[in-house]
Structure formats: structure tokens, C-alpha cells
Write a structure and sequence with these properties.
2 helices, 62 residues, mainly alpha
Length: 62
């Protein structure tokens, strides 16, 4: 169960990070909007990956 929860947190975070690489790639986006989105998304992605990895590691040692 812990491993599944870990993957539920890690895999969408990886997908969100990859999708975030396209932020600002269109012609009608502004730099300030891109920076705002990055300021919000990057910490959330990091937290999700760290918690997910911890859950996966805890599951391996239990």
C-alpha cells in the first residue's frame, strides 16, 4: 500500500515536471505568468517527489 501511494505521488509529479517544460512556449504567454506558475509548481513537485520516494523506501524496509 505504501509503495502504491508512493508511485501515486511520484509519477504525476514527473509528468507535471515534463509538462512544465512547455510553459511559456506559446506566443501569447507572458514572462510574469510563467514565473508565477513556476514559483507555485516547482515546490509542489519537489514535495510530492520527496514524500513519494520516502514512502517507496519505507515500504522496501518494512
Amino acid at each position: 500500500l505504501l509503495q502504491a501511494l508512493g508511485y501515486v505521488l511520484v509519477l504525476p509529479a514527473i509528468s507535471a515536471y515534463l509538462a512544465l517544460n512547455f510553459t511559456g512556449s506559446s506566443t501569447y504567454t507572458s514572462l510574469s505568468g510563467v514565473l508565477k506558475e513556476m514559483r507555485i509548481a516547482i515546490p509542489a513537485i519537489i514535495v510530492s517527489i520527496v514524500i513519494g520516494c520516502l514512502l517507496i523506501l519505507v515500504n522496501n524496509f518494512i
